[in-house]
Write a structure and sequence with these properties.
The complex is a heterodimer of chains A (169) and B (487). By secondary structure, chain A is mainly α. Chain A contains seven helices and no strands. The radius of gyration of chain B is 22 Å and the shape is globular. The chains are: A mainly alpha (169), B mainly alpha (487). Chain A: It comes from Candidatus Jettenia ecosi.
Amino acid sequence: MEAYIFYIMAAVSVTAAVYLIFEKNPVYSALYLILTLVSIAALYILLEAQFIAAVQIIVYAGAIMVLFLFVIMLLSLNIKEELKDAIPFQKIPALFMGILLFSVLCIILKSKFVQGKQGEYTSAYVASVGNTKLIGNLLFTDYLLPFEITSILLFVAAIGAIMLAKRKL
Amino acid sequence: MANVSIMTFNILSILPILTLAGFGMIVLLVDILSSRKLGEKNLLAYLSLMGIIVAAILARNSTGTTLFSFNESFAIDNYSLFFNFIFLLSTGLVILISHSYIKREEINHGEYYALILFSTIGMMLMASGADLLNIYIGLEVMSISIYILTGFKRSKLISNEASLKYFLLGAFATGFLLYGISLVYGSTGAINLKQIAGFIADKGSISNPLLLMGMALIIIGLGFKVASVPFHAWVPDVYEGAPTTITAFMSVGPKAAAFAAFLRILMTAFGATHYEWQKIIYILALLTMTVGNVVAIAQTNVKRMLAYSSIAHAGYLLIALVAANDMGMSSVLFYILAYTFMNIGALAIVIIVSQKGDEFIQIHDFAGLGFKHPGLAVAMSLFMLSMAGIPPTAGFVGKFYIFSAAIKSGYIGLAVIGVINSVISVFYYLRIMVIMYMKEPTRDFNPLTLSPLIVVAIVLSVIGTLHLGIFPSKIMEIAQQSILILK
C-alpha cells in the first residue's frame, strides 16, 4: 500500500514539475508548482515527517505561492510573448550534463553499497514523543545557535526588501 | 515525555558575534533617530568602526584556548580566531574606504554599514562553524547581505543587474551546497564535522558513493563562493556593477570565509578521503588560475580586471588546498591576509581616482597619475607589484609559501603552472604602472574622492603589504599554530 502511494505521488510530483517548466502561462506554472509541493508533502508523510509535511503545505504551498500568484498577476505578464533563448548553444551541453548527473545518481542508488546510518531517532521513539515536540526540543537545545542566527538572516532580508524596493528612501 | 537537557553553552564564545549584531542594530537606530537634515552621517561610520574594534578586543580575549560550545557545533580555536581577525580587518578597511565613496555616489544610507556588519557575522559563523548547519546559516547571512549591498546603487541599472545576477546564481549554488549537505547527512547520519570524520574512519568512504557525491556537491557550492572556474561566470559582472567599496568587500571577506569553511570541511570531515577531493580541487585550481589570468589580459575596465585577478588569486589559494599539508594550510591563511591588504588598497585607489557615478575606471584613465599625484601612483604600484608577486611585498611571500607547499606534497606540475600563471599576471598588473608613469595625462583628476578615513585605509594597506613582505615569519608562525586544530 505504502509503496503504491509513494510511486503515485512521486510520479505526480515529477510530472507536475515537468509541466511547470514547459507551461507557457505563468499562472498555470504556479499552479503546477503547488501540485509539486503538495505531492512532495505527501512523500514527507510517508516518511513519518508529519511536521515537515504540514510546514511544506502551510509555508510553501500556502504563503509563498500566494505571493507568487500576486506578483504574477500584478505584473500582468503578456502571456503570448514567446521567451527567447538568449544562449541557444547551451541547450545541448545542458541536456548532456543533466543526463550525466541523472545517470550517476541512478548508478549510485542502484549500487548495493549505499546504506545510510541508522539515526538515534527511530520511528518508535518519534511516535512515542511526538514529531513536532521532538523538532522543537532539538531546535531549542542542540541547534539553538543556528536557530537564533536565522533571526538575523530574516532581519537582513527585511532590510533588503525595504532597501531595494522602496520607491523613495 | 522527552527529556529536555540544556546543552553546554558558553555565551562568551559568541560574544564578538553578539557585539557586531548589537552595533548593527544601533547603527540602524541612530540612522532613524538622527534628523534627516544632518545628512552627513559621519557618526555611523565611526560607530561601525567602534563595533569592529570592540568585537576584535572581545575575540582577542579568547586567544590560545580551544572552546566548543553549542553542542560542539561552534568552535572557538586559533583557526577561527585567525579568520575572525581577517574578517574584522577587511570589514574595518572597507568601512574606512566607504565613508567618502557612498557620499559621492549618494547612497549614504545607514543600512549600508548595518548590512556590512551583519555580513561579517555570517563570515565569523562560517569560520567557527564545526557543523555543516552552522556553516550553511553563516553562508546565507553573509551572502544575502552582500546581494543587497551589490544592488545598493538603486538608480543604476548596472548595479541592479549585478545584484539580481548574483542573487539568482548564488541561490542556485546554495542549492548545490544544501544537496551535498543532505547527501552527506543521509549517508553518515551526522552534520557535525568530527562525527562525519569518525564515520568515514569507521566505515571507509570508497564503499559509499553517496558520501562522495555529497562531498563533490559541497565543493561545487563553496567553489562558487570562492569564485573558482567553472563557477566564476558571475564574478566580472557582479564586481563591475557593485559599488566599488562592495567590490572590495566581497573580493576579500566572503572569499576568505568560503576558504575557511572549505579548509575546515575538507580537512576535518573529509581528511581521510583526501585522495578523492585532491583530484577535484587540482582541476579547479588549474582552470581557475589559467582562465583568470588569461582573460584578465583582455580587460580594459580596472574593476573587471581586478575581478579576473581575484579569480586567479582564488586559483593560487586552491593550489595550497591541493597540497593539503601543514605548509599549504598555513599559507592559505597567510595569503588571504596578504590579499586583504593589497586588494582593498588597490580598490581604494580606484575609488579615489574615479569620479561620481563610477566614471573613469578604464585603465587608460590612470594615464599620468604618476605625475599629477605621485603618492597615489606609488601606492597603486606597490599593490600591483604585490599582486603580481614581486619582492619585497606580501604577495611574493604568499605565493612563495603556496608554491613550496605544492612542491613539498609532490605537485610539481601544479607549482610550475602556478609560476607560469604568475608570470602572465605580471603583464596586466605592470600595464597599469606603465600607463600611470609613461603616458601623458588625458584628464583632470580633480576632484579626488579623499577623506582622512580613506587615507588611513591606504596607509594601513601599504604598511600591511610591506610588513608581510619583509617580516613574514611572525604571521606565518601564528598561521602555523592556527591550523594545528584541523589535524
